[in-house]
Amino acid sequence: MTKPWVYLGPAFVAAIAYVDPGNVAANLTSGARFGYLLVWVLVLANLMAALVQYQSAKLGIVTGKTMPELLGERMRRAPRVAYWLQAELVAIATDLAEVVGGAIALKLLFGLPLILGGAIVGVISMVLLAVQSRFGQRQFESVIIGLLAVIAVGFLSGLVVNPPDAVLVAGGLVPRFDGGESVLLAASMLGATMMPHAIYVHSALARDRHGVANTQTRSRLLRATKIDVFLALGLAGIVNVGMLLLAAVNLQDATGTDSIEGAHLAIQNSLGSVAALIFAIGLLASGLASTSVGSYAGATIMSGLIKKQIPLFLRRMITLAPALLILSIQIDATWALVLSQVVLSFGIPFALIPLLRLTSNRNVMGESANRIPLRILLWIIVALVITLNLALLFGPLLFASI
Q: Which of 94, 140, 354, 393 is the most exposed place for a label (fewest CB within 10 A)?
């Protein structure tokens, strides 16, 4: 009998989206400004993300089609094009975070100008995608998993040197906010943690790895996929919480920590140059891996919704251009990352609601369709996401008036 570990891999590629440079910016900013206050947001978001990613993988395994393909078959042209445009906006916001984060890492490591660093990140991401095209998905998964290991070490090693207070961490699990800025950061953390493009692409990753599952293999594949998602999203969740705790422990009393560069300097002053170097390497691995996965997702979205495929180089240039523009006009890079995650947060319902409807449809999923209790839970997740987005819009005004 085939061992379950043989099926592991697709969720680890999708999980890269949950530890990209946007996460770094949002989580470090949250920890530096509010300490342990928003730990609960990350824990809740990662639990929701694990459930959602499993639904996407299940959709690909059971139907043999990607989520964008299924949507493209069911939508008229005008709504389909509009839906594709919002999904492309999400892809651009994703790439912005990943390229800018990688450029910051190259500046920290080698002193390169941000615009040059962004271009280098774009080129290397094309090389990683060429690995997937030429050598297949398993080799691509192996490279991405290796980068994920580097990311985990890069962002968690500082906690070994200076661990957080367990009592304060437990206090951070109590849901609450502290003013409008904390609501903004919570929405940014949600957008960074539950990534729309990862929802779209996981169905493709599972389908491409396993093919269409027949009735004999479906149960085994779905069980293995649960393990895959549990391990991958569990690791991503630990890394996310670790970033926030790193900032809460080491950056709250430091100055200039409202940027990744400032946070890197504060880590160097607090934990030493080795810890700062490992942090920068983790940030670079995050940017390289996540921009490759983001480009893969963008191609999946375009192919499924509008049945178009464009050359890899051209697609890479289209999504890379806004990030390079941001870097060239010297907008604050860290806040560009945070705000890109807010854009992603608003894109989540557009990915979640169709996923819920498809995986609950017996005509699509057959016996694997979601049962009523799971449907209710998924709708609760959608409601929470929409509520937090509304709080993002109106919360600052509300808090300002009190």
A: 393
Listed in sequence order, the residues at least 6 apart from 245 whose beta carbon sits closer than 8 Å to its beta carbon are 31, 36, 39, 159, 164, 169
Contact 193, 42 (CB under 8 A): yes
The string of pLDDT tens digits covering residues 365-399 is 999 999 999 999 999 988 887 777 776 666 555 54
Domain ranges of the chain: 4-401
Q: Are 296 and 201 in contact (CB under 8 A)?
A: yes
∠ Cα 401 35 95 (to 5°): 85
Sign of the alpha-carbon dihedral angle for 375, 380, 383, 384:
negative
Q: Is the pTM of this model over 0.85?
A: yes
Q: Could you give the CA distance from residue 200 to residue 220 in angstroms, rounded to a whole number?
A: 23
CA dist 120 and 123 (Å) reads 5
CB 109 within 8 A of CB 101: no
Distance of alpha carbon 271 from alpha carbon 159, whole angstroms = 10
The 10s digit of each residue's pLDDT in 91-138 is 888 888 788 889 999 999 999 999 999 999 988 888 887 777 776 777
Residue 6 per-residue DSSP state = G
111 phi, psi to nearest 5 deg: 75, 20
Confidence check: pLDDT of 316 > 90: no
Q: What integer pLDDT is reported at residue 1 of this predicted model?
A: 47
Give pLDDT tens digits for 63-75.
999 999 999 999 9
Residue-level pLDDT at 281: 93
Residue 45 burial (10 A CB sphere; 0-12, 13-18, 19+) = buried
Q: How confident is the model at residue 402 (pLDDT cuts 50, 70, 90)?
A: very low
4-401: which CATH topology?
Answer: Amino acid/polyamine transporter I (1.20.1740)
CA distances from 285 to 77, 81, 124, 392 (A): 39, 34, 11, 30
Between the alpha carbon of residue 173 and those of residues 41, 90, 94, 302, 378, the distances in Å are: 8, 29, 28, 39, 22
Give the residue ranges of DSSP H helices in 137-259: 137-161, 166-171, 180-193, 196-210, 215-250
